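Hi R.,

Here's the chain you asked about this morning:
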Amino acid sequence: MNDRTASLEVCEILHTIAGEGSRAGQPLVLVRLSGCNLDCRWCDTPQARRPGRVMSLDDLLAVVQRAGRKLVLLTGGEPLCQPHTPRFCRQLQRAGHEVLLETNGSLDISVLPGGVHVVMDVKLPGSGEQERMLSGNAGRLRDGDEVKLVVGDRDDFEAAREWLRGQRLAPGVVATLQPVAGRLEPARLAAWLLESDLPARLGLQLHKLIWPPGSDGDCLLDLGPGQG
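And here is the predicted structure, written out as tokens:
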């Protein structure tokens, strides 16, 4: 199977600003893949659970390259639910792109090619999916990778504290605590973080401050559910 016949199911492609993590504020191309194996209470991208458009890897690369950006973010849904995601990462790298991949942490990240920067979401009790985390993934993270812990209340914060203290993350792995939008005030999470000695930073969803709901940048291709 070549890159013309291999395919991915795509929810949306945006020319936008990175909204989270250490790259927040940086222009990039966001490719949101369809499908997810979890059902988190705090999910803010339910559209990614619906069927998207099936695109060949070559066609998808062509759309990405329209924006002229080096940095590409693959997100979901859960990108690793689709078997050709690692292959598309390699194709992007061969074309000169830097690749970020957001994952929910429940699937094996070792399938990804070297050089892909992983942003792993660590599920806390409030998500309802804490038990789905794959235990070996934290040890597979490397310098330049990141973990994101979405906190909905004090119990989540304490679980985040316990998780971070129990891991032996590589020295260059960045940990970010992010409040659940509309549920936990950022100032409260900031206060908890300041009172702690956790090796983590506070993160906010920058894209939600810039654009109104449902508009997170310039759409490179309209991929309505079930099209194609």
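One quick note: The chain has one domain: 7-221.

Cheers,
M.
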